[in-house]
Amino acid sequence: MLSVSLPAPVRRYFDNWFDSHNPPSQDAILLHNRRLYILPTRFGYLFAIMLLFLFFAAINYQNSMAFMLTFMLTALGIISLWHTHKNLLGITVKLMIPRPVFCGESCELKFEVSHANNSKRYAIGIQYAEQVPVYVKLEPEGTSGAKLRIPTAHRGQFKPMGITVFTRYPTGLFHAWGWLKFDVPVLIYPKPATKARLQQSMVEQYDGQTSTSTIEGEDFAGLREHREGESLHHISWKAYAQGKGLLTKTFQGQARPSIWIDWNMVNEGSLEDKLSLMTALVLAAENEEQKYGLRLPGTLIEQDYGSAHKHACLQALAVFRQPDFNQEFKLEND
Amino acid sequence: MKTTSQNLPIRSIANETVRRSSIFAVCFCFLCSIAPHFRNLPVWVSAIVLLALGWRCLQNLGKVRELPKWVLIPLVFFGGIGVFAEYWTIVGRDAGLALLTVMTSFKFLESRRHRDLLILVFLSYFLIATHFLYSQSIFTASLMFANLIVATATLITINQREEKIDIRQLVGSSTRLVLLSIPLMLILFVLVPRVPGPLWGISSEQRGGVTGLSDHMSPGKISNLIRSNEVAFRVDFEDRIPAQNRLYWRGPVMARYNGYRWYQARRQVLNRFNIVVSEPPVKYTVTLEPNGERWLLPLDIPTKLIPDALMTEDFQLISTKKINDLLRYSMESRVAYEVGADEDPEYLGITLEYPEDLNPKTITMGKSLAQRFDRNEDIIKEVLKMFREQEYFYTLQPPTLENDVVDEFLFNTRRGFCEHYAGSFALLMRAAGIPARVVTGYQGGEYNAVGNYLIVRQSDAHAWNEVWIENRGWLRVDPTAAVSPSRIEQGLDNALSDETSIFRIQNRNPIFGNLLYSWDNMQHSWNDWVINYDQRKQQNFLSKLDLGIESWSDMVFAMVFLLATVTGLFWFIVWYRERPPKPEACEVQFGRLLKKLSRRGFQKRPSEDSRAFLERVTDRDFPQREQLADIVELYNRIKYGRKGSSVRNLDSMRSLINSL
């Protein structure tokens, strides 16, 4: 296996160089000459050694045809260097905005690979880290989709890193590649806590929960003064328009408690444990069709329910105290 | 921007599955490159190849299991032992090839990864090279070229990762790669500085079955040789080609005689060369086919020495190495001369020896001739006259001779080939007291008008005599010429037209003769330019080109320059052919229009199409709304109208946009 390990300063220099030549892209990356790299593969080196051996044999036997074959294979190497490069040149890779996943699940990245040239492209691989790549083939001016499943190990919002698009077609002697760095956030929710822990903490939640300020039911019961922290959905805008101030509609009927999922209420365990528990609570509340709100230090999400609300809560949990949000991360620590 | 470090992403791609079709392809590729070797390999090695490939294919189909390691390792071991038992070595051309073949076959049995398949294709490439140790002919080269395409196609299919193999597409891609490589290969072939070899010792091994002259002569030896149509050598003359009857190509000279066979006397390297010449030298270049022997074949008496060869006292030109490769050398010869007047008396003694107890009739006849004539020249004339005037026949199928073979031949059967005549003539001369020896070689040759050179075949093999006359030295006498003058004047075909196959192109195929001459000429040029392209040829060629490429550094520089130029040219052509299609001209102009409008504050909204946008602009108080309407009208006309007037419309559209 060839992995180049260089002294740290040199390495940093190269990393910077790579970064400055491969700025992350908002949507699509066009692989032009300056974004494409090519180096021999192990087989390329092996092939070169074989050529050297053939060359000396040809000299030794003074065999013209052996010379010719050696040179033919050398020429084939040169031509295939160019063909491998050409096979990737002009290709555009687009990353579809990925659906958020819970930490521990694998995140599916969908790519759209296309090109505008009048040539077929074979065996274009997209690979994350050292995982098994997926390959696509492109017709002239064609488009093709590729899916990559990436394991997740940390919650948060990340930019995908360490993904390359590469090819070894036609001879496998060279590896041409381009970095796929997208400025597209991949959101990974915290891993929800297990059910047992959830149930235990639910009790605590309900114990500490006293205010059932807005009750949702079938029948409209009346209006009362709006209190801070109540959902805006239930404000009577009609009354507000009439200049009566902010009033909240109250309903009578089968009462459902609306809850607060509060950082301060969850006091056991580490940061990640807490977030994981809160995630489970959000999911449980959503599942019960309860109204729920989220209180995190510095963040407050009003009580509501529905998938957009759930997403907002989960996102808040995902990025909560995420170490150094602006920093780019690999999706998985190495 | 701070990032985590990135490793270069070149690594073996883990867990790669290999498709079935790739394995079949590799099996086929290996079979193609090994099959022409079957005649050079022991039968059991060929059998191993076929068994291993068969097993691998069945395994691929799921019919048999993969052989476990404890079976494979002993197999490999016994394979090695087998090769050693066959050749008593594992190095050298034949044993090395057998070993490589056996080991590669076993490698197939344990190949299942992507990596293994690539290595097997590399081995196939390598096997292609080994064929050239056996033959470098045009035929072999063409076959290997086809093999190269197969191997490259295999490499492509392995790397293509398509589920289905599209053979046409594969062969097409592979041929394209190989054809594109040819110009680069030629540049490298011509310009990579050649180094004289060998670098390490090589065992001298023959190339296949070769025929050629032998160091002794007994009845039947040459008549076997002349049944072969193979080319012995080709000769390019600098000036005119001498007449047929002067074209005696000198090979082994035989002075010793044991009553049955003639063989060579031990001779020293020539150190004094007394030759009286009466004509300018004939200058020519011989391209000698490999024959596994050492005789270079000069015309008559060579008067020039070449490197790696020496001349003996009987004017044989002998190479210091066995001729196992095509050899090309320039020579100078004399066809009119007096030579050997100062011959060593000891050697002359040898050339008078003969066994007294054999061939009594011949010996008696020789002795009586010596009594009848005073001058040796008259004796020679008398014998030649006998051959000419009495009932002697020139034939390739002489009756079998027993016991006193010369007596039998001269007085009984009277049917024979050049070796019979040369042999019996020499014995007669010796009996008459005239020093005589037998010279073997070739006589004549076929002129190829297409390439202006002479083809000498094995069928031109011949034997003649040299006799030594006081004060005149060695004289050539060809008794066959007395029996069958047409053999010497016109060649074997004409002398034996009714009993042998026909060798010469002109006689063999009058209709396609020119085509065949062209083919032979091609082989000759192939020999000359490809097989013989060595350091000297390279220097000659480059200096003839007169481009100032002299030293190694010049050559390397020119090579890099040419490689870059040609690759760049290819790159450009392919780029041009595959470039993305250009947008239509009217669209380009329309784009310009939109840009111009946006600069004036009219932005096209993402929701509206171009038509709606332009309508919106014209509805506003746009100062040049009529002009804009015209442009839109023109655009529509170019895009959707008849083709005819589009060029004019485009021009007016452009100028309208310009003036906007």
Topology:
The complex is a heterodimer of chains A (334) and B (660).
Chain A: H1 8-21, E1 28-30, E2 37-40, H2 42-61, H3 64-88, E3 91-95, E4 101-102, E5 106-115, E6 121-128, E7 134-138, E8 143-151, E9 156-158, E10 163-167, E11 174-180, E12 186-189, H4 195-208, E13 219-225, H5 237-241, E14 247-252, E15 259-262, H6 271-288, E16 292-296, E17 299-304, H7 307-319
Parallel strand pairs in A: 4-12, 15-16
Antiparallel strand pairs in A: 1-3, 2-11, 3-5, 5-8, 6-7, 6-10, 9-12, 10-11, 13-14, 16-17
Helix pairs in contact in A: 2-3, 6-7
Chain B: H1 20-34, H2 43-60, H3 69-87, H4 93-109, H5 114-131, H6 138-160, H7 167-191, E1 216-217, H8 221-225, E2 231-237, E3 248-254, E4 256-257, E5 262-263, E6 275-277, E7 282-288, E8 295-296, E9 301-302, E10 309-311, E11 317-319, E12 327-334, E13 337-339, H9 345-350, H10 360-372, H11 376-389, E14 393-394, H12 405-413, E15 415-416, H13 418-431, E16 436-443, E17 446-448, E18 453-457, E19 461-469, E20 473-477, H14 479-483, H15 485-490, H16 492-495, H17 505-508, H18 513-531, H19 535-545, H20 552-578, H21 585-599, H22 610-619, H23 625-640, H24 646-659
